[in-house]
């Protein structure tokens, strides 16, 4: 930023600065140069196995409006989306507050590493229809937030096949696609949609730079849809949440700097991997397991052994103890609609290396206080 900030903001096609290039109205769906840069960047971080067409892309002021705009485009007030649990609690705000669209939990269990199954989707859909709810789509995050697991190619195919059979849409939130650190392959739903086996017009993808590039203040997200009508409707709604041209100019320069991006992403993934190993190993030494994960800035920790009672009440009591006694802020599973008490999301990437032993010691002392 310090080396390229002013030059990137002042850039123009002919090399001469023109104030109108940043001060005048521009396409609300994002500058073409930025959509091209985003398309190349997304393909690069997703392993180069899928290409993205800039004409199917709308730039949004972060991931939050991307999700909300898709809800406006795909569902009417009173309709619903199926959503596998546990899920990111911010989806309640992003989806429900202004669109009037409901979220119907599809409960997943630790025995499946909290991975959604077709039978669970079928059950949730049937129950919703019996209650008179019209289900318009399925929303999920991949890598999962809060679990951190990565959906397999087979699972993605199952989800899309189910959606096609039921004539509903699929929204895949892939905002952590570049923050993978395990051995498991990340597959974008765009790759599945482009295989020729499915109706790709029902697939819609959300991405943004807040997580993978750690720049949430830039408010830069993406809607990628194979449905022309959805793209056109989203473009119109972008008048309410477009990205400032100055920010777009900076991002064009940033995302187009292939050498920097490749070096940055390699360092980013390595740092997550190293910190994840330290954090999970520390918990393991305390006898506290974690769900298998390979992506995201967090891990899903099973603290059920510390519960005074195996219930939501027991989990919330533990949350209070962690917060007030151990001074550790972890998201309880109930906030993520997890039906198994005792799971917590811990954002280990927020910690310095020297903080991890401190955290482990505080958890150890808290655990001992329960036993005494």
TrEMBL record:
- Residue stretches making up the Aminotransferase class I/classII large domain: 11-363
**InterPro entries, alphabetized:** Aminotransferase_I/II_large (IPR004839), Ethylene_sulfur-biosynth (IPR050478), NHTrfase_class1_PyrdxlP-BS (IPR004838), PyrdxlP-dep_Trfase (IPR015424), PyrdxlP-dep_Trfase_major (IPR015421), PyrdxlP-dep_Trfase_small (IPR015422)
Question: What CDD domains does the entry give?
Answer: AAT_like (cd00609)
* Keywords per UniProt: Pyridoxal phosphate
Q: Which Pfam families match?
A: Aminotran_1_2 (PF00155)
* Metal-binding listed as a keyword: no
Molecular function (GO) terms listed?
Answer: 1-aminocyclopropane-1-carboxylate synthase activity; pyridoxal phosphate binding
Establish whether keyword Nucleotidyltransferase is in the entry.
no
Q: Which domain of life is it from?
A: Eukaryota
Regarding protein family, the annotation reads: Belongs to the class-I pyridoxal-phosphate-dependent aminotransferase family.
Q: What is this protein called?
A: 1-amino-cyclopropane-1-carboxylate synthase 12
Give the taxonomic lineage as stored in the record: Eukaryota, Viridiplantae, Streptophyta, Embryophyta, Tracheophyta
